[in-house]
Design goal:
By secondary structure, the chain is an alpha/beta fold. It contains 20 helices and 24 strands. Helix 7 packs parallel to helix 8.
Amino acid sequence: MSNVLDIKGLSVALKRGGRNINILDDLNLSVKSGEMMALVGESGSGKTIAALSVMRLLPRGAAVTGEIMLGDKNLVTLDEPAMRKVRGREAGMVFQNPLAALNPSRTVASQIGEAWLVHQGGSARAARARALELLGEVGIPDPAKRLDDYPHQFSGGMRQRVMIAIALACSPKLLIADEPTTGLDPLIARQIMALIARLRREHEMGVLFVTHDLSVVEEHADSVHVLYAGRSVEWGPSKAFFGHPRHPYSEALLGSVARVGQARLQSIPGNLPEPETRPGGCRFAPRCDYAKPACGAAYPPAIPGGTLAACVSPLPVKEDAGVAQNGAVKAARNFQPQLEVGGLEVRYKGNGGWFGAAQTLPPSLTEVAFTLGRGECLGVVGESGSGKSTLGRAVLQMVEYSGSVILDGIDVTASRGAARRGLRRKLQVVFQDPRESMNPRIRIGDIIAEPLRLRGGISRAAQRAQVDSLLGRVGLNPEMAALLPGSVSGGQAQRIAIARALAAEPEVIVLDEPTSSLDVSTQAMLLNLLKDLAVGSGLSYILISHDFAVVSYMADKIAVLNAGRIVEMGETSRLIAAPQHKYTAALIGAAPQLQGKI
């Protein structure tokens, strides 16, 4: 197969504080026709910068050197008018957040047809026919009736299909997929990945797949390229990489992935270095358990093996390697009842328009009941729209419901005034995107101290001391209290959200997809932290997630929601090993599980 994309010696520097800072250094990779190459690494490693470099969508003022060959064109040297002819026609891109990438004021037909009209010409009728053809090709049900719908009328998975249709409008040679399944439930994510796999085979299209989900990479990618702090550390065939990773960073990444039955996740000590402070030699050396003096001398050359590894002494092949920690079964524990939910039902009211009466919609939750013990974690899983987040909001008293929520023997539903506020303080939440729940203009210390101020009777000095203690408790430097939310990473922001929840001294924390947008090393650190907090302080969790591996690691029992009802609930290891309901079996079957050795 011929190469669709050849990147040679690519380096990218961005403006920071009035000077150029290198973000990506000496990247070399190629993508063959019909091949899927996965670009992986922690947040900040340079994955998205590499993808945006190919599409020439970098911030203004970026300095780019090297070659990006798409066929016989060097994209680095093309002027902007020539590059506009490449985007969409020869290279298409699918972004992580389709709702942000799609124009909310235009129909999907006009947005799909636009790309085709710009590059192929022809009539509006022909463009509409092409849009209809593409919607059918990407699996939109009854595409003729959906042509004139707007993006908000589609589900997350359907919007991602629309994005793929736009990217394929002109049958490009190369498709760049930047985290296309992040935030999607496993059934929808599996459909999206199967769709991309089918389309690349049928169109003989190369795919550059940017992701932090290594289980998806193992299942779908032909080759893997690992970046760390802007440099390549290991690359080669996917089978060889997952069978015998040779760079210590690759080994650490694979050890950070949650697997069914795993007793403890491996977390990588320290943090990814900032571009301004990257060390000489191997950039992973300060965090590496195998580091030697020679690692700091110069950046190591690639040493061949099953894969190529830029390491002074790559890890030996472990013939007996296996996932030793897999198969660990959680011992059954007796939990004292703490939270009891019974007969929970939630009904939302539809908008009747300017003159119509508000309509009562079918219930989002029906007859939901469970008991959560002190120090226990209940995992709640299901497809998007199954009612998971609604269940969390009902427990938190954020939506109207019928039924009962009893905390420590007291009926929260029947409580009023100060008594109700006191009970609600014991129920806290950590959202999927912590930055969305923080005021960007308020400093982190004040965000964490807010529950302390609301409680009253605590001096400012005592508040500051408690904030410093809480930051330390979640593994952050107390100096971070002076920063604004926009200046911290996603993993740090999620830890800040946990610290804020802990400030209220809760008994139950609802975790709503807390790890879905985090890379595997940050996810491992966060999950270990949450588990340690539960053991140390008796905290209980309701973990809402679509990731069965994460749920199996954290949860003592699992509730499976489908169309607002609990269709199956049971102890975690039993439910995963022998699901009784066909919907549960379908969810588990759709969830990718890492199989390779570490």
